[in-house]
Every structure is written in C-alpha cells, then in structure tokens.
Amino acid sequence: MYKKTLLAAAAIGLASTAQAAAPSLEEMWELVQKQQAEIAQLKSQLSETEQRVAQTEEKTEATFAAVEEVSAGPVAKLAEWAEKTTIGGYGEVHYNNLTSDNSDNSKDEFDLHRFVLFFGHQFNDDLRFFSELEVEHNVAGEGKNGEVEIEQAYIEYDYAQHHRAKAGVFLMPVGIINETHEPDTFYGVERNNVEKDILPATWWEAGAMFSGELAQGLSYDAGVHSGLYINPMDGKYKIRDGRQKASEAKGDDLAYTGRLKYTGVPGLELAATVQYQSDLWQGETFGGEDEADATLWEAHAIYNSGPFGIRALYAHWDIDDAIEAVQAGADEQEGFYIEPSYRLSPKLGLFARYSEWDNQAGESGDTEKEQYDIGVNYWLAENVVLKADYMRQEVEVGDELRGFNLGVGWSF
Predict the structure, then answer these.
(1) SS3 402
(2) If the chain, 412 residues long, is cut into consecutive pieces of 10 residues, what is the mean pLDDT of each piece?
(3) 32: helix, coil or strand?
(4) Cβ-contact 366, 397 below 8 angstroms
(5) With left for phi above 0 and alpha for psi between -120 and 50, is residue 27 left, alpha or beta?
(6) Burial track 356-383 (b if 16+ CB lie within 10 A, e otherwise)
(7) How far apart (Å, rounded) are the C-alpha atoms in residues 55 and 253?
C-alpha cells in the first residue's frame, strides 16, 4: 500500500514538472518567427553570394579574353617570329708579316679581314630564307680598303622529299671552302690560294639552283645563274677578276653549274663540279673576237679518321683561245693542293700544305707559283680558334714571299 502511494506521488510530480516546462503557444510562435527570419537572412546571403560568384565569373572570362587577345597580339607574334628566325655570323682578325724579294709584295699589317652576320627565317616546314652580310677590311667607302657585300640572299623551298630548290643570290657549289669558310672549319690563317684564285672563293652568283639526294650518301646540285665577266681591255685576265658579285651583273650570257658529292663512307667526302659559260665577255667584242667560252673542272677529296685528316683539291679552267688574241697565255688557269693534318688533342691541331697554281696574270708576268705552309690551330672553344702558320711562296720568275701569319677567328 505504501509503495503504491509513493508511485502515485511521483507520477503527479513528473506531470506537474512537464506541464511547467512546456512552452506556451505564444513562445512557440515567437520561435517560428525567429527561425523564419534566420531563413530569410540565409536566403539573402545566398543571393549575395550568387551575385558575387557571377561577377567573379564575368571578371574571369574577361581576364581570359584579355590574355587571349595578348596571346594573339604583337608580343605573341614577336615570340613566334623569334622562334622561326636565326641569327649567326663569323669573323677573323689577321696579322701578316711577310717579306718578298719584290718589296711591293712585302706586308706587315693588322687587319679585321672579315666580319659577317647571318640572318635566316623559317616561314613554314618547307620554305625558308637565308642571308649573309659581310664587311671586309673593317672600313668601307670611297678611298677605303674595305667593302660591304651581301654574299647570300635566297629563298629555299623543299618541293619534294630529299629535294629542294633555291632562288636568289647564293654561293657556288664548288671546292671545299667556298660554301663552308668559317675560320674555325679550316687550317691556316688565310684561305688557300688555289681555291681563292682559281675557283675563285668566295664566289656567289644570282639565279636558281636545284639540290637533293639521288641515293644514300650521293647528292647533287644543278643550277643556272649569272656568269663571270672578263674585260681584257681593263687589264682583267684572272678568273677571280671576273666575279660580278650580283651587282648590276651583266646577264647577256648565263652560266651552268653541276656537282655530284659522295659522303656514303664515314669521314669521307668526294666531289666533282663542272661549270660552263659560253661567253666570258658577256656579248662584247675584243680583239676582233665575238666571244670566249670557259669550262671549269674541279674535284676534291676529304678524309678524316680519328685525329688524322687530309684534304686534296684540283681545279682547272679551260678558256677559249680568243683570250689569247688579247693577252697571250691566259687560256688555261689551274692549280692543286694537298693538306694533311693531325689533332694532337681536341683543342690542338697541326697541318702542312703544298700548293701549286697558275692563274697566268699576264699583266704582271707571273706564271706558275708554289707555296709551302705549316702551322697550328688551337680551339679555345668549338667555334673559337687561334691560328699561327709559316709560309714560303716561290714564283717561277724568281720572286719569293715568306713569313708568318697570326689570326683569331670565331663563328656562332
């Protein structure tokens, strides 16, 4: 009975407490209104956030548009141009100390012999431009020793796989140094006399040339271009004097050049060039003769095996006998040289050269010449070289030129 009375009392107490803790209707309504206000505030904040997101998206799109505009603008075009454009060059400074039995040929001088800049541009995968601007002997102008020359300026087009064509002003595909004559690529301070006076390097013409590969290691060049011009009445008898250098060059008679080159064996290069021109006088008449045709034959070999290397070249001009009517003895001009070399180390190389040539410059009475050279190249870097050599040149008429040369050369 007592337990039941306690349970009843506890139940009555809990009910009273629950009734006292329960909120009134008025309090519940206030709570709902408060929650609704909070929800409205959250909705307002969400709307503001959505507006800010939209504004940010608009600004981002505008930024991307500006970036794209810049990317397609001058800065991007300049970057694209720079990627497709190449700049290079080479130069060489010489000191010559030579003594001759004929004092007029003696020399003791310093000379910035050449300063050259290359400019090239790749228009697309198949089309490109190349040029070469040269200043010789440092100072050019009226009464000065030097010249400013554009040795190359041509467009080259790959019209088929392994075949290309070029048009403009370009170097002749003849000899060893005519196309590759940077000072770090050959021995000796000065370029050898056979290629300089007989071929004659450096030799460029204006016209068109086709080049390519006939088979692996066998390439060809074939072109038609401006020719030489020799005026015997001006005292010009040497082939070298006939270079017109594509400067308002007479075009009455064109010249034709072809070369085959074989490089199929590692370290070996064999090449032969033929050029024909039907009239060295370019339509003019001298000594009662109407024309003088000329044919050049040139062949050379290069072989490198480890530190040992050797170069040999022969060149021969056969000029029509009409030249003899003006200047006897100028109908043939020829020469050859042989040059062994040895690399004592990657930086140091020794060479010797024997040359013999006859360009029969009748105005001076000189005929056959021979020259001995011995010297050293020291490469400070792959494309920077110091040079020193001793030479002795003998002329058939008895004159002798001897002495030493020093030089520094570079290319990039």
Answers:
(1) strand
(2) 48 50 71 78 77 79 70 72 92 96 86 97 97 95 92 98 98 98 97 95 97 97 96 78 94 96 97 96 77 93 98 94 62 94 98 92 66 98 98 82 97 97
(3) helix
(4) yes
(5) alpha
(6) bbbbbbbeeeeeebbbebebbbebeeeb
(7) 75
- Cβ atoms of 184 and 269 within 8 Å: the answer is no
How many angstroms separate the CA atoms of 401 and 185, rounded? 26
How far apart, in whole angstroms, are the C-alpha atoms of residue 206 and residue 244? 10
Residue 13 and residue 5 in contact, taking contact as beta carbons nearer than 8 Å: no
396 belongs to a structural domain:
yes
Same domain, 65 and 166: no
- Can you give the CATH number for the domain in which 221 is found? 2.40.160.10
Residues in the chain: 412
* Contact between 249 and 228 (Cβ < 8 Å): no
Q: 319: closest CA among 359, 368, 287?
A: 359
Q: Which domain holds residue 335?
A: 93-112+154-411
Q: What is the DSSP string of 286-306?
A: BTTB----EEEEEEEEEEEET
Alpha carbon 26 to its chain centroid, in Å, reads: 95
Per-residue confidence (pLDDT) for residue 64, from 0 to 100: 74
Asked if 184 and 409 count as a contact pair (C-beta separation under 8 A), the reply is yes
Helical ranges in 153-288 per DSSP H: 193
Which residue do the tokens 């519940």 mark?
Answer: 28
Residues 99 and 57 in one domain: no
Nearest in space to 221 (alpha carbons), one of 150, 276, 271, 280: 271
Strand partners, 318: 295, 332
Look at residue 117 and tell me if it is in a domain.
Answer: no
Q: Which of 143, 145, 116, 144 is nearest to 131 (CA)?
A: 116
Q: What pLDDT, on a 0 to 100 scale, did the predictor assign at position 48?
A: 77
Reported pTM: 0.79
